[in-house]
Amino acid sequence: MRLSKYFLPILRDDPKEAEIVSHRLMLRAGMIRQESAGIYSWLPLGYKVLRNIERIVREEQNRAGAIEVLMPTIQSADLWRKSGRYDDYGKEMLRITDRHDRDMLFGPTNEEMITDIFRAGVQSYKDVPRNLYHIQWKFRDEVRPRFGIMRGREFLMKDAYSFDLSAEAGRHSYNKMFVSYLRTFARMGLKAIPMRAETGPIGGDMSHEFLILADTGESEVFFDSAFHDFDWSAFDIDYDNVDAVADVVQEFTSKYAATDEMHDVAAYEELPEARRITGRGIEVGHIFFFGDKYAEPLGCQVQGPDGKPVTIQSGSYGVGVSRLVGGIIEASHDDNGIIWPEAVAPFRIGLINLKAGDADTDAACDKLYNLFESQGNEVLYDDTDNRAGGKFASMDLIGVPWQVIIGPRGLKQGNAELKNRATGEREDISIDALATRFAN
């Protein structure tokens, strides 16, 4: 994409309304625009990051055997009354009435609807286990939306729902999602520590939330430094191997980790003092196993192997897709702007023409631009006539992982300058070497 033809409304000054780093940088980098309290439009740069995160989430859900569906944002109140949550959920639920005076709501979550869908579509034990998921916009009417997309009212979420014949089988489905989340966040360059959590309005007796460390995190966290020694790479695993999956879960839950809500001071102080770490965390995922909490009132049963009806056991599994955009920024930035991990970056390469209008630099940049794109790289080519300092500042602000800088002086030696945004390291590299440096 040529910057001269792109829509990138960068702000020079920090917005006064932005209280945390991600909100400030997303507004300054032209990623989002506020439409009303807690509701944002996603502009081209931000939307590209959002879709990259969504792609990784989708790929890992599919890898774990989940099946994608799409449910509506507007739901009937009838199902929520059957489950008993319509009145219990609180004012965060946006309740509306349609033109026929039917009670409706803008979905904050989908346990009731997906349970009803599954109930209507299965008859036999042969139809389970199943895990259905979608990636859909949600709405929760926060009384004080703040911190930009980190605590907005409208947000994009992946929510999956498992259906099993027994609690034992349901635990395996839960464990599969646990491991899938480790892989998902690792692919984004994140170490998301799993911590036992309250189940809240979702219900159930087993729950973990996944938190990434950041100074501006809303939760205080306490954990064992041994987490730093774990394998956080996107490791391969056979999800049908019950023991192998359970072993990974056991490894990642064997060490102390808790938010302030679940903190056990005595257990924490049993750790050697050198291994006690306290910090702040941002929740980016939350998983629950709630058994028959929704299946029972909604009549979700299948015929068991013995011909008798069996009530389904379920769990739900959420990832804050839009929240992850802000969470990654909170965990990965410096004084100059965002530092995107390559897997989620809006562009892999920022190509900077230091003398737009000069025949030689224009020709060299055009050649590299076409080459990089032909290799499958996403490139933002700054072909504008802005000053060099402004071009560097903009590329640092938006966080493109690699900057390729072309100017008349370097071209005389057949060289370009290559900058790594994360480390700040710069190197002179021949134009010819660039032809293979970013080949996928």
Detailed description of the structure:
The structure is a single chain. The protein is α+β, with helices and mostly antiparallel strands. Helix content is 31%, strand content 28%. Strands 3, 7, 8, 9, 10, 11, 12, 13 and 16 form a nine-stranded mixed β-sheet that branches. A five-stranded mixed β-sheet has the order 20-19-21-22-23, sandwiched between helices. Strands 4-6-5 form a three-stranded antiparallel β-sheet. Strand 19 (349-353), helix 10 and strand 20 form a beta-alpha-beta unit. The two termini are 19 Å apart.
- Main pleated sheet: 9 strands, mixed
Termini separation (Å)? Answer: 19 Å
For the secondary structure, the number of strands is 23
Q: Quickly give the structural class.
A: alpha+beta
Annotation keywords:
23 strands, alpha+beta, 440 residues, 13 helices
Short description:
Helix content is 31%, strand content 28%. With 440 residues, the chain is α+β, with helices and mostly antiparallel strands. The longest helix has 21 residues, at 167-187.
